[in-house]
Protein: RWD domain-containing protein 1
Amino acid sequence: MSSETLLEEFEVLEAIYPTELTKLSERDIRIDVEPEERSDGGEEFSLALEVHYSDEYPDALPDLSLEATSGSLDDEEIAHLIREAQKVGEENLGMAMTFTLVSHLREQLSLLVYSREERRRKEAAEKERLAIEAEEARTRGTPVTLESFNAWKLKFEKEMTAKRSREEEEKLKGLSPKEREEYKRLGTRLSGRQLFERDKNLAIMDESLNDEDAVSVDISQYDRTVVEEEETEQLTFSDSD
Structure:
């Protein structure tokens, strides 16, 4: 490309980007690039695109380099933006392409901003979901199954047995040998339930014995009315009385 043709493109670019374009040399320019749409409360990004035009331009791609001037972009993100710009440049070989390259970069930078914000929203939503699940698990506790209940019951009974043994030992330590012996003797007595069960069994045995040794009794022999009538008949009165 002749210098005159390149100067014409520079004049057009200067009219489009009056504050963004800086001419570095006869074949090098720098253009500040920002996203098409600004982030609403998110991170702000801006790039500096440097373009070097070879003698074969526009039949050959210009050399492109990018530098982040605002916001943080890693090397992979910058390399991705350059590759995308080069694809667009290959589609426009043979014609002035700088304006097209800058417009495409602005679109790609907007997509990058949007993808970052979307990723942050998803991470925040996932963090909130995990926090809710953790709180629900804390308040809900562990689901009880037959196996877990039996394991808990066995552990609880062992703990209670050990606790009673410790309490028994502590109680015996404060007793004299005689009191200790008396305490142990009282401890072997039957409980109230055991006594009740034993008395109930004895009552059943007494009933069976009564059935076997029962004696028939004529209750009429003890009828007071009959006795009184018999006594009245035995009494006689004379006229002299």
Notes: Residues 205 and 211 are 10 Å apart (CA to CA).
